[in-house]
Amino acid sequence: MAAIHLSELPFYNLLDNEFCREFASNRWNAVFEYSEFGDYIRKLNSGSVLRDLNFKYSTPEELNSSVCKTGSNICFSVFHLNVRSLNSKHALLCQLLSLIELEFDVIVLSEIWTVNIQFLANIFPGYSFYCDLPSDSKIGGVGLFVKNTLNHQEISHLKITSTSNNRVENMWVEIQCGKMKYIVGGIYRHPNQSIRDFISSMEPVLNEITEQKLPCFIAGDINIDLTKYNSSCDTAAYVDLLLMHNCLPTILMPTRVTSRSATLIDHIYYYEGMNRASTPLVDSGNLLTDISDHMPNYMLVWDKKKSD
User: Is 90 exceeded by the pLDDT of residue 106?
Assistant: First the structure.
C-alpha cells in the first residue's frame, strides 16, 4: 500500500480544540445518539444476530482495539466506502487501510467512476479486482477487491440490469473462505431513481440468495435513506423486503453527514445462511474519516465458539 503522509490524513490540520469542537457540535451529537432505526428493525426481527450486533462509530485506533481482542476469531470481514472517484482518492484510501490492523477479505467501493480503472485495479497487492462500470457516464460504478488467498468467482446470473428508471451498477462474487462459502454483492444505486423499481429488481436476487442458503453480504451506496423508514412508504417497503428475506441491515446510524442533513444511505446487509452450526457474533460500524463525503462502513463476523 502507499506510504503514509500524515499531512494528508483526515483532520490532520485541525488543532486539538478545533477537533473537539467539531465533534461536540449539535449535528454530531444528533448523529451519535440516533438509535431509532436500529430499535425498529430489532422489533421486527428478534434474531440473535441483531440482538447481539455491536454497532458503533469508530476511529481506526478503536477498530484496531476491537480486532486485537478477537484476533484469529474473525471469520470474514467486509469494508465499504463510497469513494467518489477512486482515481482521486486512492492514495487516501490506501493510507486509511494501512492504519487498520486487519486485511479485509473484501473491499467494496461504490462510485469508483471510470477514470484510470485499469491502472487502479492493482492498488491493493494480493487482491483481485471485479467491477461494473456505467456505460453512459463516468460517474458511478462499483468495484470489489477480493483477497487472492481466497477462492472466488463471479456470479453473473445475480446481476441486476440497469435501466433508465433503475440505474444501478452491481457485482456478485462467490468466495470460499476455509470451510465456508459466502456470496458478496457490491451495489451502487444512482440517486433519484425509482425505489419501487429497485425493489422489483432486488426481489429475485434475494430469492436466489435465500434458496442457495449461503451466508451473504451486500454492501454499497444504495441511496435509500433508511432513517425515513417511518415517513416514506417506499423506504418502509424496501426495509420489509430485506427483513422478509432475513437480510439484516447492519449499518444502523447515518453514514453521510452535512451541515444540513444526516442520512443512512450506505448499507451492509447480512444473510446468515442456513448451514451454520452456530450463530456468529457480528460487529459493524462507521469509520470517522473524511476521505469522501460518506463515512466508510465495516462488518466483522466472529466465530462465537472461539470467543466463548
Answer: yes
